[in-house]
Amino acid sequence: MGATLGENLQREWDQEPQAPDLWEALKLIDEDRASGISKLTELSATGSALAMMYMGEILSREEGESSSDVAERWLLRSAEAGSIEGRFQLATHYERVRAGQRAIEEHKKLAEVGYAPAMYLLGSIFYSGTLVDRDIHKAVKFFEQAKNAGHLPAMGYLSWIYRSESFGWKSKLRAHWNCLVKIPAVIWFVARHPHSDRMRGFSLPWSPG
Predict the structure, then answer these.
(1) How far apart are CA 104 and CA 123, in angstroms?
(2) DSSP E strands: which ranges in 3-56?
(3) Domain map of the chain by residue range?
(4) Apex CA 116: angle with CA 62 and CA 147, to 5°?
(5) CA 82 from centroid of its chain's CA atoms
(6) Mean pLDDT by 10 residues, the chain (209 residues)
(7) How far apart are CA 141 and CA 146, in angstroms?
């Protein structure tokens, strides 16, 4: 299979013992949704954390409380089975349903194991203040962690914060430096690896193909 995946999702696919069957199930969803979901359910029942994650991610985008509840259960099972992708989708699901504290708890678990996109989204949550009380200093802390882990949008967010908030002239200089440093890296990743975890926000780089 060819692939345009983030580094972690690619790793999980490489370690997935039922990867061919999972890929066939995902392709089948476009042609016959019911059959595709049935196949994903079978794979999930055999312990495939990735199949559980895709089930939850698909259902989380559907309307209705029942779909949301089932999606949460699948994503939680995926996370408990050890999938970083499953926990990340669980955290972003909590963001979609505006369960801010739960989203923060799940993202923090990922940040503790060094997953930069989770650090970035923690910064976004605290800076926006739409799910929890706004806390610029916490936002900066998590953006700095993400930046230090190589996350490029975090550098851009930090530049914006240092320019627009009251952090002093040294921070404004740091903001301009962040902008200069990130430009060539962003150009390279957009051209060569746009789905890299170093570029990732919410989106799910869907699957091998």
Answers:
(1) 10
(2) none
(3) 1-97, 118-199
(4) 130
(5) 15
(6) 76 95 93 93 95 93 82 96 96 94 98 96 94 94 94 86 69 63 64 82 48
(7) 9
Tell me the pTM. 0.85
Q: Which residue carries 């499953």 as its tokens?
A: 86
**Residue written as token pair 């490489």:** 14
Tokens 């059959």 belong to 35
Residues in the chain: 209
Distance from C-alpha of 69 to C-alpha of 52, rounded to nearest angstrom? 14
DSSP class of residue 50 equals H
Task: Dump the DSSP string for 72-97.
Answer: HHHHHHHHHTT-HHHHHHHHHHHHHT
Residue type, 38: S
pLDDT recorded at residue 75: 97
Which among 129, 130, 106, 100 has a CA at the least distance from the CA of 119?
106
